[in-house]
Amino acid sequence: MKILIVGSGGREHAxxxxxxxxxxxxxxxxxxxxxxxxxxxxxxxxxAMEFDKLAAFAxxxxxxxxxxxxxxxxxxxxxxxxxxxxxxxxxxxxxxAILEGSKAFSKDLMKKYDIPTAAYENFDDxxxxxxxxxxxxxxxxxxxxxxxxxxxxxxxxxLEEAKDGVKSIMLDKKFGSAGNQMVIEEFMxxxxxxxxxxxxxxxxxxxxxxxxxxxxxxGDQGLNTGGMGTFSPSPFYTEEVDAFCRKYxxxxxxxxxxxxxxxxxxxxxxxxxxxxxxxxxxxxxxxFGDPEAQVVLPRMKNDIIDVFEACVDGTLDQIELEFExxxxxxxxxxxxxxxxxxxxxxxxxxLENFKDKEGYYVFHAGTKFKDGKIxxxxxxxxxxxxxxDDLKKARANAYExxxxxxxxxxxxxxxIGKAIDEA
Length: 423
What we know:
alpha+beta; Rossmann fold; Dna Ligase, domain 1; 4 domains; 28% strand; globular
């Protein structure tokens, strides 16, 4: 088979690495890719939002399956463009990707179908949002409705903070058109857990659990980022929690989308909060998480091509997912100053140290080739991953692996997976 991956981050590198293991795959292309992905795929100079060019390329190269890694093209309708031209593609159509594309839509869906989530109100008028805050309980959560690179959520502890937040989202357009509408919801307490799943429109298969670290600085301080590290599985995602979610959240979400005429095929990423009153949905995503994919895929035993094809063909009920009985931890190496301002073009040293090192992986997020060398090309540069028999061992291995690679301005959190110690 010939496979095309659309995207350029650490998630897409992890996908390329996993896809390359399939005996069914002869050739992988990635558009636009990065310096790490180039080890497994031929990188193509087409951006993720150039749908017609991507479809034309897929036809020209007789691509058997295209895998969409990123949220923007999914929400923009790339799957519809490919399907209209008779091309096989893994991912939800535009009318289903709205599950991630609009927080207001997803909150209304959960309310209508009685899927547990935080109490909320939607607003498209900043004056009404400001008036609502006058009688709200604090802390409170403000969410830009649309896509905002994982950064469109503000937790506000006071009325003044919340008013400033409404202004920055809806009036100053800090997150662009994503802030044309916004959701104000109750602040939930508890452990956050990420659960990824494959869906074929009717059947859902749950992958292993993970936990992300969104804040830039140790102790969950600093600004929200795209993710500074992850671990899998989450010790807080117990059999009891899993049973509850399967009954009241997972299948109900798939059925709700089908009932709305929005059949969902692809990945549903459930962002959960394990509250004192039980698990509730924080958010949905319509693709693999980044960096969740980097800890989930190395633990997955299945040939991922079999699973992708079952999702496309509606035969997922014939697949049972299998995962290694181990753990994985990912520490993101960022450019100091991320997510605000940072330098690019700095040489990365030591990548060769990961060659043939069992259980150690380095997935490229923001890298490129320059003058024959691999240099930094983003805020999040690398995802360093290590496995171990248990979470504590995997965490120790991951921080050993961090020492194997270096670049000027290298920064990472020192407490990824520290919650493991409290489990």
